[in-house]
Amino acid sequence: MADISLSGAPQRVDDIQSSYMAQVQRRRLYGGLTLLIFVVLMVSGFNIADDRNAGGFWEGLHQIGDYPADVLSEAWAKRADLPGLIVKYFPALVETINIAAVSTLIGALGGLFLSLLGTRGLARWPRLIPLFRRLSDIMRAVPEIVIALVLIFILGGGPVPAMIAIAIHTAGALGKMFSEVAENADLKSVEGLASTGATWSQRMLLGVLPQVAPNYVSYALLRFEINIRASAILGFVGAGGLGYELRNAMAWGPGRFDEAGAIFILLFGTIVFFDQLSSRYRNRLTEGHGQ
Amino acid sequence: MTTTDLNLTKHEAEKRFVRKRLIAFGIPAVVALYLTYIFFAFDLAGLAQRANLDNAVTLASDSWSHKVHVTRDNRTGQITYAVEGERKGRYPKGTRPAWVTGDDILTIDLGAGHRVRYLPDNRTAVEIPGFPLIEVQAKGRSLTTNLPDDLPDWISASDRRVGITTPQGRITLTGARTEVFNYFPGWELFWFTLDSPYHGHGLATILFGDRLDPTRGNVAGALSDWWNNAMWRHKDVAWAIGETILMAFLGTMGAAIIALPLAFLAARRFSPLLLIRAATRRVFDFVRGVDALIWTVVLARAFGPGPLTGALAILITDTGTFGKIFSEALENVDQKQIEGVSSTGAKPLQRYRFGVIPQVVPVLLAQILYFLESNTRSATIIGAITGGGIGLMLTQAIQTQKDWEEVAYYIVLIVAMVMFMDWFSGWLRGKLIGRNG
Fold first, then answer.
1. Where does the pLDDT of residue A288 fall: very low under 50, low under 70, confident under 90, or very high at 90 and above?
2. CA B133 to CA B124: how far, in whole Å?
3. How far is residue B118's CA from residue B106's CA, in Å, rounded to a whole number?
4. CATH superfamily name and code, A70-286
5. C-alpha separations of A158 from A147, A163, B258 in Å
6. Phi, psi (deg, nearest 5) at residue A85
7. Which of residues 85-104 of A touch B (CB under 8 A)?
């Protein structure tokens, strides 16, 4: 071995050093170029965005605090009404949470089927795997607002369009994450069940689901967090719930800022609350089942 | 093992079985109960009445077809032909569709024996197979017709307005004007509007044929006419998609740049002071909790509507998310590499650069690229609120409630854009940190 590597002209240390330096320099050059391109993209992108915005960045910068200050000062001045307003908007909050919860439930169910039907080794119809994968890709790619706006036109405003829209997107997104988990599932139990003559649904229910359930529930909880935000945003375009109330409160402008303030507080509190709750449960699920 | 022991184990096992059974029945029962509550809370029973199925039919048929309006102004007697009835889609003077014939008496052939005749004195005759000839006379603001009292449900008539809907086309008559809508499949004028010399010519003619417009070359002229198409606004659409991607790019990258140094402050290993650590974490929780919706609303007040506002809203929200993820990644770095670097006499900054950053870069890049894709979707939604990008064009097109073919076009583009960003971020991730990184 030693003979082979030493055969040919023995390399001098200088050569090795200079070739190493050349490599380092080339790496630095590429790194620098990448960085330069990135900086140019960021700066020119910022300038384009700034140009196409109604107000400029530098003029607006010192006004960022104005609106929150207005809202807060008015809400503070009318702080006696605040508990009443929070009670008033509580039903809207419940609706927002309900939209998120139902769409997560339905979406998780859809994602479950999409993932089982689209995973090699588990699929009911192996030939249709690409179909179910593309289906979940497309469902994932459609932003909720697209489906929500179209459905609002057909079904009228209210929680149902938002629920369907979020459920479709959730099914696609969870379908992908679920199938990544299902790919790593141990197939021995499935084979064992198959040898007893179990049907496909029995194999899935008894062989696969117990293995993947903790991860699935954990992903579904994460999705629930995301869906609360989504359902608030969809409310803003007319799909009911807290977002809808927020848009109305904002449309009234000054004088009703206490209402906007109350909605801000409710929304902020809800998001933080469910974030904490779900992250606690997710930790328990993925790290030793709470023991 | 004694009998009592065995009994105890059996008892224990039975208890567990009972618990398992309870859970197996309990969870579906709770879900079913909750869905029942939702059924009433969301008023699903009343949805059937609120739903407007006519809208659904309009949407479904308009999204893949277009209509050509033939309009007679009953005061001036002037006739206009226009695609979708829009000024931009008007036929130039002296031209008209081939299915309209005649000069004094205009015959509009809708196909399958359906014919409409515009007669002098604002009279109109509608010929529909299997139905007696309909004659309508417009006078002032009212209409006189020969329609019988009991009408089929595809005709609606009053003395002010008559509407006839057939599978071949639609006819509406009022005192002021008579209009015929003839439906055709496809997105008309998608390439060129009627005033462009290239309208109606194939790709081969444009590429290899004679010059259609003496003042410009065929390819350049055709490209510019397509780009500036007033009906489909390809230029604005391209800009809007660019704006949406720009919002996602600026927001994601800006958030990553800001979050990285802050994440060091929030990680236990690099930030010994509890106070600073806790304060940074609360800042992350706060900006994340306020949510992109509220940030958009607040920032739109300061910067006005536009892509910059959307980019900043994404930036602020994601700074919190990235901060949290990054600091968790930083807590999990391997100490050995840092010790190795510091044993060479590296200063703190060099220790971070060569000991820490190379370890966390794959994790951070994977997260950033994943968020780039997901933020493209968020940017579409934020754009609809703050007024920028393809999201705004989509909401505007939906709000007009008639340009459904444009809505369908935008939806296709949005889905294609998100799928492209998904593919692109996956590709970049593969290039930068290896397939399994």
1. low
2. 10
3. 5
4. MetI-like (1.10.3720.10)
5. 14, 9, 38
6. -65, -40
7. 95, 98, 101-102
